[in-house]
């Protein structure tokens, strides 16, 4: 069947009014409604016989739309996952703006499962409605996931407000990665293959108090290093620890997420180096992570930072 513009416009109007429909996606067929209509969402759950304690994923048309519903997306998630696999069949889970996402969508949690679609029909629906759509697979809970229209249970078709018959884009479900935890965790293997060991890498804090006029703290994530520098006299933990805390928060990390800590051990100011080593040792002991001393070459760590 060839869809006409009037078919898509009718579907958009029904979604705007709280309707529920079956539509193609870039993976399997989905059943859904707009994210901001709780009555429609409850209807989707009832139709699918899905327990309300199970969250559902949502689809967006862009990273910008995803960011409207998520807390700040960590830079490493953008660089290592979104830039590589979006749009497409990768679903990520991140902390969300709970005031904008109904509790039934997130199963009373604080995270949201979201992916950016590249299916032209689904894109038109999202853009026409103006908000994300919830889009679980178009099947009764526990039954076969439909990758072809013929796989959709005829009973399900009779329960929705519209059906778009355009072919779906894949033969498998999306891959789901929980990025709200560290290390990231693959919850479901699907159409996209992601090797997490190649994306996460080490997360290392570097402390350099060798200069008698400034402190440098940097954070290495997945091969990239982000630097903070402050001119402070005298140096103390009152200067260094807030710098570490600020750097971690900028990347949505906590101290427990670090894998290592490194500290400058010279040459440099004896007093400054002593402060840095003391902080690094105490930090490493508290977090139960390795601490490594590094010599300074030409005023820098032997590991060249990148900005």
Could you state the order of secondary-structure elements as H and E? HEEHEHHEEHEHEEEEEEHEHEE
Q: Which structural class matches the secondary elements? A: alpha/beta
Number of strands: 15
- How does the major sheet shape up? 9 strands, mixed
Shape: elongated
Strand order of the largest sheet: 7-1-2-6-3-5-4-8-9
Number of helices: 8
- Head-to-tail CA distance between termini: 52 Å
Low-confidence spans: pLDDT under 50, at least 5 residues? Answer: 298-307
As a percent range, the share of helical residues equals 25-40%
Average pLDDT, rounded to a whole number, is 87
Cα-atom Rg, whole angstroms? 24 Å
Beta percentage is: 15-25%
Brief account:
28% of the residues lie in helices and 23% in strands. The protein has 307 residues and is α/β, with parallel strands linked by helices.
Summarize the structure in words.
With 307 residues, this protein is α/β, with parallel strands linked by helices. The chain is 28% helix and 23% strand. The chain has helices spanning 5-16, 38-48, 63-69, 75-85, 120-129, 154-157, 237-250, 270-287; strands at 21-23, 30-34, 57-60, 90-95, 111-116, 133-134, 162-163, 175-178, 185-188, 203-208, 215-221, 224-230, 260-266, 291-297, 300-301. The strands form 2 sheets. Strands 7-1-2-6-3-5-4-8-9 form a 9-stranded mixed sheet, with helices on both faces. The chain has a 6-stranded mixed sheet with strand order 12-11-10-13-14-15, covered by helices on one side. Helix 1 (5-16) crosses helix 5. The N and C termini lie far apart (52 Å). The model is unreliable at 298-307 (pLDDT under 50).
